[in-house]
Amino acid sequence: MTFLNGALLFGASAIAIPILLELLNRTRVEYTKWAAMQFLQKSIQQHQKKLRIEDLLLLLIRCLIIIMLALALARPILPGDNFMGLSSTSAVLLIDNSYSMSTSNGVDTRRDRARAAGEAIVDSLPTGSKVAVFLISDNLDPAISVPTQDMSLVRSTLRNFEPSDQSTNLAGPLQSAVDLITSDQGAKGELYVLTDGQSLGFRDLTQVVNTLETAASRFPATMIFLGQGTEPNLGVSLLRPDSELVSTRRPVRFYVEVTNYGNTEAHNVKVFLALDGGAPINDANIELIEPGQSKTVSMDARLAEDGYHTVTASIPNDRLKADDQRTIAIQAHNTINVLLVDGSEAKEEKDRSLFFLKGALQPVPESRRSEFYIQVEDVNASQFRAANLARADIVVISDVERLSSSMVASLADFLRNGGGLLIFPGPKTDTAFYNDVLFDEYAMLPAALYMPGAIPNEVFSFDARAPEHPIPAIFTGSSEGSLGTALIYERAELLPTQWPPEEETPRLRPEALRLAGPPVSVLNYSDGTPAIMERAYGDGRVVLFGSTADTRWNDFPLRAIYLPFLHRTIGYIIQSQDDRLNIRAGQPFMLNMSDSYADATATVESIDKRDVPYQESTTVELVEGQARLRIPNVRQGGGYQITLDTQPETIIKFAAQFDPSESRPELLPDAQKELLAKSAQVVTWEQGASLRGQMDTNRAGTELTSIFILLAFVLIISETILAQRFSRSR
Amino acid sequence: MAFSKRKRKRSPIRLSEPKRSNADTPEGKLLEPSTLTKAEALGLHARKVVEGAMAGRYKSPFTGFAIEFHQHREYVAGDDMRHMDWKVFGRTERYLIKQYEQETNFDGCVLLDGSKSMQYGSGETSKLDYGRIIAAVFSYLIVHERNSLTMSIFDTESRSMYPKTSNPRAMTNICKMLMDFEPAEQTKIGDVLHSFANQLKAAGITFVISDLFDDPEVILDGLRHLAFRKHEVVVFHVMDPYEIDFPFDGTVEFEGLEVAEKLTLQPHAIRKSYQEEVQKFLRQIRNGCEQFDINYILCNTAEPVGEVLNRYLATRLRVTGRY
Question: Where is the VWFA domain (chain A) (predicted)?
Fold first, then answer.
């Protein structure tokens, strides 16, 4: 049994009142001389025992009356629907574990308060209750998924659950939790959501309300808001290199964006840049950041070795430390090897279809080409072998009629492991092969090709007005250097299809369905039809052009924008490989690897200094023929290093990013809380406040107040009758 | 052959006008004019024939040879020949002895309980005060009729005693004795009655004025002893209304007047049983008295003493049929 007003139980001490009154009555004595003592003695002798019993009975009843009244005032709650039963309840705790819960008020963090509130709820539960604990952020993380009666396990979980740097979006995780707990038809209990009440988490408020209303019949919910006020907060909202191509051969400039999420100006904000978890190697100062504004500084760093690196930008710690540093992982390349496969078989260099493209990839004098960070190897289509792929980061196929089956398979592996592929059609291109094999069977191509042939006097141009794709996104405007200046005389129409396919496509390889991503238009013609398309394939990426790489069908290679566009395309493909290295906190890290890594043991450690160092071990597993490294539960932001026990050791680094929007300090306004209150009990809790009583109020149980009042009433009547009867009988 | 006794017409007892004594004097305090006037009008009549040393208006139970012829009886050997009625012998030749009904005064005894229990009084009048008045009234009536009076105040024994007197002037001293008496002991009324009964030499009337707080059997035994000694016994049982009704509330510590005992209790809790005990006691005393033809009058001190006495005297007149 629990009590809503437990303090009023002290009222039970009022039972001392009748006892004291009884004693006082005995001490408040009237004295009299008396002659007829003999009658008194006889009366007393005859009735003394009976009188004592009656007095004790009356005293007992009076004490019981006071106890009943005290109990009634204390508002006892007997859990469960069954009055006489000791039925327990099943409580489900959903604890907001987003990084905004790390916000400190100088004494404790919101997460600390959540832990305390969780324990207060556990304390308030009737004996025999069961508790499940879920951590929610932008996903649902079951800490104790099956309700347990082991309260020490629950308390331990509440005290020790790992904080995450994920953002909040309560709607989805809440729905998942409700689906999970209501999947058991007989399940009934209480749902508690402990959150700081950050507005961001309730951006889908309607869905949250609907979910709570759905669950209300079996799991009436209590929203416990732990956030208090808004703390001043600066956060590193963005960190990126200025170029997609990170090379060890030149310094890399990193842009760091710092946002002031607070309500006061921030002055002289120091920004530091560090590599691979080391000490800062560069710093910058931002003189002023207005409230709600962002400022970006750039800092250079040179990556000494090719391979994986982490870059960390940080600012001095404030009340929310989680967003005071941001880490990205990048792969530095000593060189980017591009394999050019030319199908034109022209004898003259300038007649080859990749003549312009080759020059554009290495726009330096011949003497310096060997030092340039893009190295080119060109082969004829007939000489194209799988061995060539081992040395290449990106393969460019131009005007190749068709490829052998083994080469197609090798290309598929190459793409799956992160390689890049650029395809330019040409006069020799066998569209039937491309469409049947590369599109229908392997789904490498983002679109089928259709050669309508040249139509006299028909010229196409790129639609450069507002391209959305990252590659052409920076090439806007209508000046001479814009994409719109290029003229396309002949083209292969790109015909994408629905992906994944709605209809059964018997030619499609099963693994292709898994590897291929949806086709995306990079750039359209002015008539709206796609001119360049791309799609992800495994960890790699395929970019398909709709015209030739040379000037046979267009004059694009002659345009000034050709070179930067090409470099940006190469950078985009390379960066796509880096994208795999940067995950959102809370997501698993997955990396497809070559089969030689299968069964290798991977040890994962956090690079950044932490209160509790992260260390996990896993194994590279073969999944559907693909060696894959998967590291789940990367909840905290920062850099991580994976060491594979190969000979020699293989080092891979990746980074988990936090969502900068979570840094916004705005809490849910009262109006929206009122909306929530229609479907849930809303409690704004401060540490030290009695959460237990508020929980008990909402608990599905029997409040025994009226019963105790009734009992007190019955006892009062009994006392009156008995007192009168005893008095009359004496 | 029995002769009808000659009746003498008696005038009602008319007590002379009582002294209008000063209220401060013991006599004045005890003999209230209103009480005495009523008592005087009714007179005091002994229900029984009493034997008295003085000739008076009261018939002696002893038929002797004094003043008034009562009846004849056959002569038996040994009779005094002086009482032979020779006239009858002359007419009838029968030897008859004349017997006379002797009118005589009686011995009146007034026994007042002077134990400590008589000190109790819930109001202004204690039982002792009440008893003093009764004792004084009857003393006055007795001596005014020229009857002899013996007054005794007792507790465990006779504490103050006024020797036999028929002098009305003795009333002053009697009253003074009544007023001056201060209770000091507890009651042993049974012993006292036995002792007093043993001292009685002639029939008479004994007034016992007491709360009778003693063992009822012992009391009744003493009363029976008095009656056995041919005394008309009249018991004035003096009780305070609080002793009868027990109307206390709250917590009361009762300290015994005669016993060194204190009882602290809540009277309401035992009121009923107390009242039952009192009624049982009164019933026992009353039945015991009736059994031996002892007059029993329960006096509630809440009731004016004059009314009690008048009622008693009226009843007595109704029973005897004469003054």
Answer: 90-289
DSSP E strands, A561-706: 582-584, 589-593, 601-606, 615-619, 621-623, 626-631, 638-644, 650-657, 680-684, 701-703
Decide if B70 is inside a domain: yes
Instruction: Count the domains in chain B.
Output: 2
Tokens of residue A721, six digits? 């009758």
Cβ–Cβ below 8 Å for A51 and B270: yes
Tokens of B124: 């202004």
Interface touch B240/A38, C-beta < 8 Å: no
Per-residue pLDDT reduced to its tens digit, A203-246: 888 888 888 888 887 788 888 888 777 678 899 999 988 777 78
Q: Considering only alpha carbons, which residue of chain B is nearest residue A37?
A: B256
Going by pLDDT thresholds of 50, 70 and 90, the confidence category of residue B322 is very low
Cβ B290 vs Cβ B237: under 8 Å: no
Supply the ipTM of this predicted assembly. Answer: 0.72
Identify whether A363 is preceded by a cis peptide bond (ω within 30 of 0): no
- Range A693-701 average pLDDT: 59
Residue B268 — pLDDT band, cuts 50, 70, 90? confident
Q: What is the chain A residue with the closest CA to B253?
A: A31
The separation between CA A618 and the C-alpha centre of its own chain, rounded to angstroms, equals 22
B162/B71 same-domain check: no
Q: What percent of chain A has pLDDT over 70?
A: 91
Whether chain A has a CB inside 8 Å of the CB on B127: the answer is: yes
Chain B residues with beta carbon closer than 8 angstroms to that of A26: 251, 264
Kindly list the structural domains of chain A, giving each domain's residue range(s) and its CATH number in brackets, ordered by start.
2-81+705-729 (no CATH), 90-230+666-699 (3.40.50.410), 336-579 (3.40.50.880), 583-657 (2.60.40)
CB–CB of A37 and B259 under 8 A? yes
The pLDDT, as a whole number, for residue B64 is: 40
Domain range for B152? 26-48+106-318
B18 inside domain? no
- Could you tell me if A377 and A338 are in contact, meaning their C-beta atoms sit under 8 angstroms apart? yes
From A592, A481, A594, A494, select the one nearest A536 (Cα to Cα).
A592
Do B277 and A43 count as a contact with CB atoms less than 8 A apart?
A: yes
Q: What is the pLDDT of residues A567-599, one digit of tens each?
A: 889 888 887 777 788 888 888 888 878 778 888
Q: With an 8 Å Cβ cutoff, is A44 touching chain B?
A: yes
Is the same domain home to B85 and B153? no
Q: Please give the Cα distance from A380 to A397 (Å, whole number).
A: 10
Task: State residue B52's pLDDT score.
Answer: 34
Residues on chain A touching B117 (C-beta within 8 angstroms): 35-36
- B36 and B66 assigned to the same domain: no
Determine, for residues B270 and A40 on separate chains, whether the beta-carbon distance falls below 8 Å.
yes
Q: How far is B267 from chain A (nearest CA, A)?
A: 9
pLDDT tens digits, one per residue of B129-151: 889 888 888 888 888 777 788 98
Q: Based on the domain organization, do B275 and B176 belong to the same domain?
A: yes
Partner A contacted by B293 (CB < 8 A) = no
pLDDT at A684: 83
pLDDT tens figures, A660-677: 888 888 888 888 888 888
Alpha-carbon distances of A550 from A51, A355, A393, A545, B237, rounded to whole Å: 121, 7, 22, 12, 150
Residue A678 has which token pair?
């229609």
The Cα-based distances of B235 to B34, B52, B165, B174 in angstroms read 23, 21, 22, 20
pLDDT of residue A376: 92
Distance from CA of A67 to the nearest CA of B (A): 26
What pLDDT score does A262 carry?
85
Spatial separation of the C-alpha atoms in residues A510 and A506, rounded to whole Å? 10
Please report the pLDDT score of residue A249 as a whole number: 79
Chain B: residue whose CA lies nearest to A30: B252
Reply yes or no on whether the pLDDT at B67 is more than 80.
Answer: no
pLDDT at position B27, please?
A: 59
